[in-house]
Inverse folding.
């Protein structure tokens, strides 16, 4: 006759894989956040500790002078505002152009659909760094120096193929019966896209 193990022993053997999993996750998080922690520690070190050899990993002297100089010597809030405007405008533009194209590729039966998807996939594999000399020439010809459009349009164009591919797979996962019932209720294709599929 087999003896039953005490409940505490049984629970510890069941929870062992969970602790191993949590430990592995904690190590992965520490590994991924180590560069961020290093930058944070470096930002509060005094200059002597930053330049010291051997490297000072955990500083004993702390300073906030670097953050103060960041806002005193540079218009850092203007930089943040510019980045926000460019990021928001390019994202909205890429979504505004990519969502209808992705919806058409997901729901309509188009001639040459595989060819269109292959072309979009090839464009996503194209390294954006190769476009910069051409973009510089376009910016010079259009006199877009110090203009938001010189950043918004290229960012939107570079992100557009990936937006189409991601949104297409999203639209394909939506139940088609929901769209059919919306059409019975009188929704047009544009209204269905704006009021049901995108939200």
């Amino acid at each position: 006759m087999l003896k039953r193990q005490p409940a505490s022993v049984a629970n510890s053997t069941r929870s062992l894989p969970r602790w191993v999993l949590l430990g592995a996750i904690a190590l992965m998080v520490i590994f991924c956040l180590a560069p961020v922690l290093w930058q944070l520690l470096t930002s509060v070190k005094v200059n002597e500790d930053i330049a010291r050899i051997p490297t000072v990993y955990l500083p004993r002297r702390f300073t906030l002078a670097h953050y103060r100089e960041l806002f005193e010597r540079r218009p850092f809030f203007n930089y943040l505002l510019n980045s926000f405007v460019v990021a928001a405008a390019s994202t909205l533009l890429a979504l505004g152009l990519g969502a209808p194209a992705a919806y058409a590729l997901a729901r309509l039966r188009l001639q040459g659909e595989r060819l269109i998807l292959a072309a979009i996939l090839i464009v996503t594999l194209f390294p954006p760094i190769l476009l910069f000399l051409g973009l510089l020439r376009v910016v010079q010809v259009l006199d877009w120096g110090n203009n938001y459009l010189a950043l918004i349009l290229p960012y939107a164009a570079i992100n557009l193929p990936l937006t189409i591919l991601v949104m297409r797979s999203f639209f394909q996962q939506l139940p088609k019966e929901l769209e059919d019932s919306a059409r019975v209720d009188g929704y047009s294709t544009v209204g269905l896209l704006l009021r049901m599929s995108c939200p």
